[in-house]
Amino acid sequence: MYPTWVTANTGSLPLKVTSTKLNYNPSAGLLTNIGPLGQITNIQDVSGNKVLEFGYIPGTPTDYISIGNGTASAAAIRVSSSNTNASFSLYSKGAGSIFAGSETTTTSPLILISGIGSQFIFSIPTWTGIRTLTFPDASRDLTVLPALTSTANQVLVSVSNAQSVWTANPTLASLTFSPTTGGIVGTTTNDNAAAGKVGEYIEQVILTGSATAITRNTVTNCFSISLTAGDWDVWGNILFVTVGTTCTNLNSSISTSTGAINDNAYVGSMNLLTGTIGVNTSVVFPQRRISLSTTTTIYGIGILTNVSGNGTYCGYLAARRVR
Fold it and tell me: All domains of the chain, ordered by start, with CATH?
C-alpha cells in the first residue's frame, strides 16, 4: 500500500505522511511497519504543516537519529552512523529559541556534559528561584576547566596555547589590587615574613645591660646587618650610655661602607656649642632606602666626640624588605 496520508490513531488528530512505501494496519489505525525499502520524507499535521521531516547528509545515508531508551533507565535521542564521528545539530530560525529543560519539579536537574560520563560543562541542580547561566561572548570559547588536584595553594593560570591549568604557587608578572579593598592581606598573628618575601624583617639589638664600648673621636661600626638583594628601608637608634669627659658631639649614620659615612645627608647629630652632653643620650639613625643587587652588609655608624675617655652604647639597627 502506498498512501499519501493516513489516520495515525482512530481517536487522534490525523497525520499526513509523505512516503514512497508504507504499510498501514486499518484495523488498528496505526502505521505498523515500514518496509525495507521504505522512505518517509516528512509527517504533516491536518493543516499540511510539517511537524517532522526526515533526511540525511548526502553521501552518508547510514547516518540516522534514534529515539528510545539510551540506557535501561533513561530515554535518549542518539546519532548512529557507520562513520567514526557523526554530529547532531539543533537549529532555530530567526529569533527563535531552542529550549532544553527538565520537568517542572524543583528537584529535576539540568546537566550538560561533554561525552558520556565525561567532563561536566555546567549543571543546574534545582529550579528553585531564578538561575542564570551566562556564556562567553561570540568571540570566546566555552572552556571545560581541568580537574582540581589535591595539591595545596593552586590557582587557575592561562597558558600560551589558550588553555588553563591549575598551578601551585605560581609566579605572576603583575598583580593589581583594588584601591577600595585591603590589598595584600597581612598576618593575623605574631609571626614573621619568610626570607625573600615582602615584609621580611632583619635587626641587630644591643640591650642596655650589654652596653658596648666605643672609642672616642673614631668612626665606629656600632651595628651591622646582612641584607640580601632587594629594596629595603633601614633605620635605628643609638643610645650613648656613657660619654667620657666633656662630650660635645654625638653622631650616627647608616652606611653601606665599613668605618665610613656615605654622606653627611645621612647623618644624625647632637652638637653643643656650649656645655657638655650627659649620659644616656640618644641619637636616631635617619631612615634611608637601601636598594641592593647582591647580599650586602649595612652598618650603623656611631661617633663619640669628647675631651677624654671612651664611652659605651646600646640600641638597634633594623631593616624591612619593601619589595
Answer: 201-321 (2.60.120.40)
